[in-house]
Amino acid sequence: MKAVTEDSRDSAAHPMDLSALLRSWRVDAGIKLQRSRPLPQKEVAEFMGVSERWYRSLEAGAAISLSGTTLNKLSEALLLGPDERMVLYGLALDGASVALVDEGGEAEEQFTLLRLVTAQTEFPAYLTDAAWNILGYNTMMAAWFPWVREPGANLMRWALADQRARVQILDWRSHAEVYVAMLRFARATASDQALENLINDILRDPECRQIWAQGPKVIAFRQGHRYKLALPHISPEPVSVVSQVLLPAYQHVLRYVVLLPQRGAEAAL
Asked: Could you give the residue range(s) of every CATH 1.10.260.40 domain in the chain?
């Protein structure tokens, strides 16, 4: 396990710290159990079958080797969801839980995915890399969101730092919290300079930085997420959509996303 120290005065400038996450997750566990205080370290230790001193050392950042069984018990003790578990395993095992990439066939597979994106004619579709750079999009995606045609188009930069998104994404703040949680997850499970640069750029926005400071919530994917869009050039009424995220085998750094209008929304298009 990495023992990482983090300057509390500027936590956004450093990788996610396992110690801080464990403390935060104990707070969340207390809330889930409808208690007025965080889940005590003693209870976590008892559930795991370890000494309280051992757990205190772990939460303090001691370099302790963690087996898969121990991580599973820790996840259960803290009532972690699947996304939090992935972050825990990624940090504790130095990213060993991240899927391997078939580098030999990467270019060919990406080309195939781009063909799938452009062949989609019924719904908006796009392809991004690990840092949410737009690698490809279909005609409908460009019609709904013309910004994808711009040089260096990036989904996260548009959704969080572009004022157009705050108009087009209804209830922007709640969705921004989801996007920020996805950035946190990506930072915790991958080491990528492009991603780090993206996060630093986004956190220059005061509201995004405020959301980031709320706490280390993490979300892996926006799969099945529902939201409404104000796209007057497409429909006079708000368009309700659900996102479907597809991850190619051995190419988990790529995301193939299709936006499906919800029932009743098709008639407005």
From this structure: 18-93
Confirm whether pTM is higher than 0.85.
no
**How many alpha carbons lie under 13 Å from residue 14 in its C-beta half-sphere?**
13
Give the CATH number of domain 105-261. Answer: 3.30.450.180
List per-block mean pLDDT (blocks of 10 residues) for the chain, which spans 269 residues: 33 61 92 93 94 93 82 91 80 47 53 83 93 91 94 94 96 96 89 90 96 89 88 95 87 87 59
C-alpha 234/C-alpha 237 separation (Å) is 9
Model confidence pLDDT, tens digit, residues 13-29 = 334 678 889 999 999 99
Q: How is 116-154 classified by DSSP, letter by letter?
A: HHHH--SS-EEEE-TT-BEEEE-HHHHHH-GGGGSTT-B
Fold classification of 18-93 is 434 Repressor (Amino-terminal Domain) (1.10.260)
In this structure, the number of other CB atoms found within 10 A of the CB of residue 216 comes to 20
Within a 10 A sphere around the Cβ of 188, how many other Cβ atoms?
A: 22
Domain with CATH 3.30.450.180 in the chain: 105-261
Phi-psi region of 206 (alpha: psi -120 to 50; beta: other; left: phi over 0): alpha
